[in-house]
Amino acid sequence: MCCVRYEMLDSDPNAPVYYEGWYHLFYQYNPDSAVWGNITWGHAVSHDLVHWLYLPVTMVPDRWYDANGVWTGSATLLPDGRLAVLYTGSTAESVQVQNLAFPADPTDPLLLSWAKHGENPVLVPPPEVQAKDFRDPTTAWFVGDAWHVAIGSKNDTRRHAGIVLVYRTVDFLKYELLPGALHEVEGTGMWECVDFYPVATESATGLDTSAPAGPDVKHVLKASLDDDKHDYYAIGRYDASRNSWEPDEPAADVGIGLRYDYGKFYASKTFFDPAKRRRVLWGWVGETDSERADVAKGWASLQAIPRTVVFDQKTGSNLLQWPVEEVERLRIAGKEFANVTLAAGSVVPLDVGAATLDIVAEFTVNKSALADVGYNCSTSGGAAGRGALGPFGLLVLADRDRLEQTAVYFYVGRRTDGGITTHFCQDELRHELYIIKVLLMNLNGFHGCKLPSFRSSLAGDLAKRVYGSLVPVLDGETLSLRIMVDHSIVESFAQGGRRCITSRVYPTRVYGQTQIFLFNNATAGDVTCKSVKVWQMDSASIRPFNDGDHST
Ligand code: DQQ
């Protein structure tokens, strides 16, 4: 395994924090099984966000107020260096309450032992929300004379609105619910794992969660939509005096606009890293095979490679997400290919073979060939479709015959008003039609024919789809992709991280030696791959902590 991968990890990242020289990641974890249940907090530490050491589980369901699970929570580093953790406990009656925990020994940089506060639960559901719709407290931010904590919920009396409640507290024990909701969006349902943080609009420096609002600061509101299992965000303005946040673009509000990731990525959470003055995003990447398969393999779910998040100063309308720079230290043997012309309908193999790769590619197209209107990643035939100017891009985790492949690509089209649109897509489909075709070819003895691809996997029992989004491309920009490939995951970033797509794929034919290809399915004209750099990635060495690690 390469990069940042955690076996047996179950789901949501919890309370990420930098404490006394260590990055800590807690996570929703079922120590007994590869399926959800018996939720405790797993715990791992790292010096560099890449090499991780597992520690014993931190908190288990051992009180009446978390008997049904120690659910998601967040950490707040107080100015005096103390750490306060708020988490949701699900009681035996499945009431969601908020609880306070703190390090039993604050001098221990590993934070091995945690104490649950004697006054728990510190917050119970207010009368206006359902007992099962009150969870996942955020990192607290300081405004005026008190800490503020946001909690996600839903309001069915207002057309199934997702809402964010904000509480004011001085001591993390007593709370006052602020009037109104910080924000709500009708029709979006329960908001899980809300995140709320400032971003600088004039620099790429990350901001502490308590950084005050101001002309050069906007606030990001993120919600994980329980109804569709995607993480949506919007950028807007926070007015603490009115307990209100409003998006810059109401038509792209939380839950109806931008997603962090257009693939498999959920329950994410950011933290401010004071060591490198950056904001880092963690997200849970679940499996897309069956629970039966997860039980058989004995583990389920990954954490995506941690990403820095910054405001995109060029577009002014989205975040840029990018794998933390430390991941680049895993790059070993690298190869570069320059100015590869991709004729219409061509597939060009690249001479690299490894299952763990970091790929950076840049394309230029001849826009005079532009013709098509109305392209859609999910419904326009995926990577196998053909249009005037796309799809073109890369095939990764492919076998030599391309019976299996995962396609990461662009499609350049036109809007009805004549403007140019660029779609960024990832195709992991397994088209039954192709399987039938191949069976027929075999039955008819057409051996040696060029076989159509089965896409990412020949295996059955998988949920596969074509993911995608429009991606902003500004005048003068080339089309750029970064693709992180590991054995069963492909994490892709377009245009410097304006849009991201993560896929879980389960290739059966690559046997550790995967192939990658450039491809161009456009019918009208060549595409040039200006450059593609491919690095094989070293193993990240993720293992249990042992005594020798104390001195590192
Ligand atoms: N997972 C936790 C909840 C949260 C959900 C329970 C999101 O606290 O809302 O395991 O995946």
User: What is the architecture of the largest domain at the second tier of CATH?
Assistant: 5 Propeller
Shape: globular
β-sheet strand percentage = 35-45%
Report the major sheet.
Answer: 6 strands, antiparallel
Structural class: mainly beta
Residue windows where pLDDT falls under 50 for at least 5 positions: 1-7, 431-435, 445-452
Give the CATH H-level superfamily of the largest domain.
Glycosyl hydrolase domain, family 43
Task: List ligands, each type once.
Answer: 2,5-dideoxy-2,5-imino-D-mannitol
CATH class of the largest domain: Mainly Beta
In whole angstroms, how far apart are the ends? 23 Å
Number of domains: 2
Instruction: Give the number of DSSP strands.
Output: 35
Provide the gyration radius in Å: 24 Å
The percent of residues in helical segments reads under 10%
Mean pLDDT: 91
How many helical stretches? 2
Strand order of the largest sheet: 23-34-25-30-31-32
Q: Fill in the CATH topology of the largest domain.
A: Tachylectin-2, Chain A
Give the arrangement of secondary structure elements.
Blueprint: E1 13-19, E2 22-29, E3 40-46, E4 53-59, E5 70-77, E6 83-90, E7 96-103, E8 114-116, E9 141-143, E10 146-155, E11 161-169, E12 175-177, E13 183-185, E14 191-200, E15 217-225, E16 230-239, E17 244-247, E18 266-273, E19 278-285, H1 291-297, E20 302-303, E21 307-311, E22 319-323, E23 331-342, E24 346-350, E25 357-365, E26 392-398, E27 406-414, E28 420-427, H2 432-443, E29 466-470, E30 479-486, E31 489-494, E32 499-504, E33 515-520, E34 527-537, E35 543-544
Parallel strand pairs: 4-35
Antiparallel strand pairs: 1-2, 2-3, 3-4, 5-6, 6-7, 7-8, 9-10, 10-11, 11-12, 11-13, 14-15, 15-16, 16-17, 18-19, 19-20, 19-21, 21-22, 23-34, 24-33, 25-30, 25-34, 26-27, 26-33, 27-28, 28-29, 30-31, 31-32
Bound molecules: 2,5-dideoxy-2,5-imino-D-mannitol.
The site of 2,5-dideoxy-2,5-imino-D-mannitol (DQQ) has 12 residues, from strand 5 and strand 14.
